[in-house]
Amino acid sequence: MARINLLPWREAARQQRRQEFLTLLGAALGLTFIGVALVHFYFEDRISGQQTRNQYLKTEIASLDRKIKEINEIEKTKADLLSRMDIIQRLQKSRPEIVRLFDELVTALPEGVYLTKFEQSDRTITLEGRAQSNARVSAFMRRIESSKSIGQPRLMLIENKDKTDTGLSHFRLSFNQISPEPEAPAEKPAKPAKKPARKA
């Protein structure tokens, strides 16, 4: 019986299978590399896009911060202007009252009483001065009480002559400034009643 040597065929088949395996392995590695590269580029693109959006948001936020700062400065300037306008309006409104106040003080100040200090806080006036006697201070307070523009005098301090070494008593008192009552609007004269028309 003839013998057939199968070794070369088996070796060739083994080599072919190895070649196919290496080819498949190379293809798999190539596909894996391509897949990894695609994923890498995809995420790089996403990261780049997100960074671009972040930079845009930072720029917009910085712009908004500048605008908010400008608005705050404008609001502060507006508040300062309104405050100054309010002060000016109050000064203009109180100008007649100040004139009336000093006029009333001059009228109420009796002879022998001398003022040395004047302070005003809102509608409260505080005075300091010298007087020839306590009776003159009492007379000054009575005149303040009877005034229409000032009232409610309160004696805060009085020192006798022998304590001041000036021959005059030292006193401090306060009183309130009274707002003048608004004048009532003048009534319009009544229109005369119409006479009924005569019948023909």
UniProtKB/TrEMBL annotation:
<dbReference type="GO" id="GO:0043683">
    <property type="term" value="P:type IV pilus assembly"/>
</dbReference>
<feature type="region of interest" description="Disordered">
    <location>
        <begin position="174"/>
        <end position="200"/>
    </location>
</feature>
<feature type="compositionally biased region" description="Basic residues">
    <location>
        <begin position="191"/>
        <end position="200"/>
    </location>
</feature>
<keyword id="KW-0472">Membrane</keyword>
<dbReference type="InterPro" id="IPR007813">
    <property type="entry name" value="PilN"/>
</dbReference>
<dbReference type="GO" id="GO:0043107">
    <property type="term" value="P:type IV pilus-dependent motility"/>
</dbReference>
<dbReference type="Pfam" id="PF05137">
    <property type="entry name" value="PilN"/>
</dbReference>
<feature type="coiled-coil region">
    <location>
        <begin position="54"/>
        <end position="84"/>
    </location>
</feature>
<dbReference type="InterPro" id="IPR052534">
    <property type="entry name" value="Extracell_DNA_Util/SecSys_Comp"/>
</dbReference>
<keyword id="KW-0812">Transmembrane</keyword>
<feature type="transmembrane region" description="Helical">
    <location>
        <begin position="21"/>
        <end position="43"/>
    </location>
</feature>
<protein>
    <submittedName>
        <fullName>Pilus assembly protein PilN</fullName>
    </submittedName>
</protein>
<keyword id="KW-0175">Coiled coil</keyword>
<keyword id="KW-1133">Transmembrane helix</keyword>
